[in-house]
Amino acid sequence: MSNFxxxxxxxxxxxxxxxxxxxRMGIDTIGALLRFxxxxxxxxxVITPIFDCNIGExxxxxxxxxxxxxxxxxxxxxxxxxxxxxxxTGLMNVxxxxxxxxxxxxxxGCEYLFYGKIEANRFALQMTNPxxxxxxxxxxxxxxxxSEKISSKTIEKLMKTALTLPVEEDPLPEEIRNRYKLxxxxxxxxxxxxxxxxEALASAKxxxxxxxxxxxxxxxxxxxxxxxxxxxxxxxxxxxxxxASLLPYKLTDAQKRAYNDCLKDxxxxxxxxxxxxxxxxxxxxxxxxxxxxxxxxxxxxSALMAPTEILAEQxxxxxxxxxxxxxxxxxxITGSVSKGKxxxxxxxxxxxxxxxAIGTHALITDDVEFKNLGLxxxxxxxxxxxxxxxxxxxxxxxxxxxxxxxxPIPRTLGLIIYGDLDISIIDEYPKGRQQIESxxxxxxxxxxxxxxxxxxxxxxxxxYIVCPLVEESEVEGLLSxxxxxxxxxxxxxxxxxxxxxxxxxxxxxxxxxxxxxxxxEIDLLIATTxxxxxxxxxxxxxxxxxxxxxxxxxxxxxxxxxxxxxxxKSTCIFISDIKSDKTKERLQVITQxxxxxxxxDEDLRLRGPGDFLGNRQHGLPKLKIADxxxxxDTLRLAGMAAAxxxxxxxxxxxxxxxxxxxxxxxxxxxxxxx
Length: 674
Hints:
There is one protein chain. It is globular and about 95 Å long. 38% of the residues lie in helices and 18% in strands. By secondary structure, the protein is of the alpha/beta class. It folds into five domains: 1-42 and 149-167, DNA polymerase, domain 1 (Orthogonal Bundle); 45-138, CATH 2.40.50.140; 169-226 and 642-674, no CATH class; 240-426, P-loop containing nucleotide triphosphate hydrolases (Rossmann fold), CATH 3.40.50.300; 436-593, P-loop containing nucleotide triphosphate hydrolases (Rossmann fold, 3-Layer(aba) Sandwich), CATH 3.40.50. The strands form four sheets. It has a seven-stranded parallel sheet, with helices on both faces. A six-stranded parallel sheet has the order 17-22-21-18-20-19, with helices on both faces. The protein has 22 helices and 22 strands.
């Protein structure tokens, strides 16, 4: 039997005290320890002669201690040990701090392996605090993420003990391993921790990357299948042509595809769970309106929930104007709607007088009831918790769910983040959408930038200045919105109507400022990233983003999307004094492209998936070994394997899939914890 699920404190060499620290590191079972992969490896099999060493290089030297080890007391809690080492080619000095236990194991005249960085010394080369091993330790050794209380060497010893125990059922069925030429679990575990060769290490890594992406995709496909509940809300008739005749413009082919994807789902007799993802200004609201129109014509009600009042109002205005005179009634429910009006709206929703409700969190209060709710739509879906979306859907019976997002996600990442949803992408702009000119400048050109802002404001246009911080910071060179607002109101832009907007304001104050800007009462809005979502002001034609290097590319693109919504030419200026090649490359990407998906792909490549996801609550377990950008080919293969195995064994009941089934159960547990 496998001991993988055994509590780590029962592993020989652990005990209660050490177990507490291992728990803190996320290692609670023997299985979790075995899946605690090394962060790096040191190759003690490549011995470098002292004569051939270069300053700053990490090397392994095999040498003999040729001097007594001297002890020097420097100060309290600081003891220095020194000795010299020689091989056939030269001499090297070794300095060690507070290593009494290690030093006691060393003997003058004996040969050891010294692994560390070569430093310059007045008379000879030097290593400080090298890792010292017996000569018999030649080979590739793991380096683990350590803590103050548990070193990499301690984890290495525990790992050797854990690897002597019986191995669990392999989560990769033999047929999958053979087809994709993957090594078995026992061999892979041995070689990921203590590889016999670089080739064996590469083979083990490939197996675990595939396994991680395979299990995740099988789990998400099963989750998607579970959500395909049967429903009586079947949208049998398609009223697209009728809806299109209400529009003063033509929908793009991409909008039509997204609409048809949704109608096909809603006509299937099973609940729709679909994401419509489109760049800023791609026309997602028109698609939502078309769907709500068809749903209403089929005798069902719809609800559209937005994260802010002003965004809800924008949607209400757009949808109600399109549907004016069609016989379909819309209502708006937000916190600002008066009590008396809200009561009338609630009665109208309950009786079926209103077929479409648009609002904020006010939609999910217990006293809001719908007659025959068939479709629920959430906009900027990552702004809502799962519980909030579920509460709205629970106001009907097995209702169709559509989530919309303007946050560009790379296609490879989308397979994982939205793996439990069907995805439609609107990758085409409506005709007439303005291209935004974008430039990067240094702060030296700020006076010219202010002149350019004044030119736009004098022509009756509006604009934004975005700062990375709300308040003044100790970090030199970072500008805050409050400080910026005070300075330019007195100096550079005195006389213009300025507004200040940031996340620390109350919701009421934020809505008041945003509404004033939208209605043209504010010329220039100084803000933080709070404007990233929810302001549609066609008259805004200029944006300046200070400390642009502080933002991700996708975030810069989202911010830039607040302008270019009207008929006039729009310009975005990124200000940054950082001269690093990486920063220059990132800002070059954003100035040369307005394609959100292309920018998102570059953002992922430059920042890596961890930084790209940031604090977004995507609800997925953290990947331990796979890299969604570097391993995109493996992601594709693992997805094909996942689909194939579920086609032949949809419930994973076959004997050869029991190990996979156990991993999926553990995955669901982690997904629920997230």
